[in-house]
Amino acid sequence: MATPDFIRTLRASAGHQLLWLPGVTALVFDDEGRVLLNRRADTRKWSVLAGIPDPGEQPAACAVREVYEETAVRCVAERVVLVQALDPVTYENGDVCQYMDITFRCRAVGGEARVNDDESLDVGWFDIDALPELNEFGLLRIKQALSDAPTWFDPTAAG
């Protein structure tokens, strides 16, 4: 994930200390029920699509923007499927971030899936029963997006 300019500005004064940031994940499904995934340039692994909203940008708009920027697929956000505070991440350069992830189920409405920026090595549509190897982060989000369950959150953290 490319570092947005506003985070570079924050880092200039905050150094490597923990930054609490919003994040969005977009699970895009086509009319055949396939899910859109990308193989990330930084990890070389298949992943769900995600990004960081710009200051003032609505989370759903960010999801739609990130999908197009990374895959050239146009989509609409349909519903929130999950909200979760993630564990802190320490990057190779020593920067520490913790994300509040809002995951959206999205519907593809146009475009042809292709690598559309330098953040992805590959993109593709996958049948749910033929997914490439994904981490638990992605699998949980796909499961929730496919269910009719209400928005997921960690009930143990609700007090």
From TrEMBL:
Keyword Hydrolase: yes
Cofactor(s) listed in the protein's UniProt record: Mg(2+)
Gene Ontology molecular function, alphabetical: hydrolase activity
Keyword hit for DNA repair: no
UniProt cross-references to CDD domains, sorted A to Z: NUDIX_Hydrolase (cd18879)
All residue ranges annotated as the Nudix hydrolase domain in the record: 19-148
SUPFAM superfamilies, sorted: Nudix
InterPro entries associated with the record: NUDIX_hydrolase-like_dom_sf, NUDIX_hydrolase_dom
Keywords for the protein's UniProt record, in alphabetical order: Hydrolase
PANTHER family hit by this protein: ADP-RIBOSE PYROPHOSPHATASE YJHB-RELATED, GDP-MANNOSE MANNOSYL HYDROLASE
Protein name per Swiss-Prot or TrEMBL: NUDIX hydrolase
